[in-house]
Amino acid sequence: MPDELAPMPTDWQRALAIVAHPDDLEYGVSGAIAAWTAEGREVSYLLATRGEAGIDGLPPEEAAPLRQSEQLASAAEVGVTSVEFLDYRDGVVEHGPALRQDLARAIRERRPELVITLNHRESWGPGSWNSADHRAVGTAALDAVADAGNRWIFPELIAQGAQPWEARWIAVAGTRHPTHAVDIGATLERAVASLAAHRTYLEALSDEPHDRHARRVVEQAAHLAADRFGGRPCVGFELIG
């Protein structure tokens, strides 16, 4: 039998989710976010890009506002009202001091106990490859958590009023190495609605109706680690900290 996943910690109030694109959080993670907001916790989103390079048949200047509006609607489905976009260029985000500083600033300003990000490794699993943006933003998020707590890294942030802040945990989603999980049996429908809100993007991906696609993908994701969490639909995380 595979090792059982532990429940995620519950002794926290604020979380910040840092990802590269609109829709990144909706392929599973939003079910956990819905569970947390239903318990009265505060979750905010920080996206490096507006996802403008994500729809082949739509020029970036037209795709960006559409994808932004769909992300705002998607977040609202799971109780998130704070969504910020950093306006890095979709598809060519680079890990480096500029990105780390922007993320560290957001962590210091939002003061989350929990930082959530997406798989930063080279692949999702055997036979797959992770995108450059996911790798860059995920790695920068891990670095920025340490940067945010060190007053001597990016000292200019202190001059801007962003005092050091130490998050307690980082939760990496979409990982092949989950250690913890959140039961989403009660919030699975909200997770489906959250992904379905990305209608323009989903309709560009396939001929499958967008709502059917959303349900299929979210339900599949919710059962990936269920056998390690008492058979319950869940979102798995690799917890650091």
UniProtKB/TrEMBL annotation:
Keyword tags: Zinc
Pfam family, one: PIG-L
InterPro entries, A to Z: GlcNAc_PI_deacetylase-related (IPR003737), LmbE-like_dom_sf (IPR024078)
Gene3D superfamilies: LmbE-like (3.40.50.10320)
Name listed for the protein in its UniProt record: PIG-L deacetylase family protein
Organism from which the protein derives: Saccharopolyspora cebuensis
Organism taxonomic ancestry: Bacteria, Bacillati, Actinomycetota, Actinomycetes, Pseudonocardiales
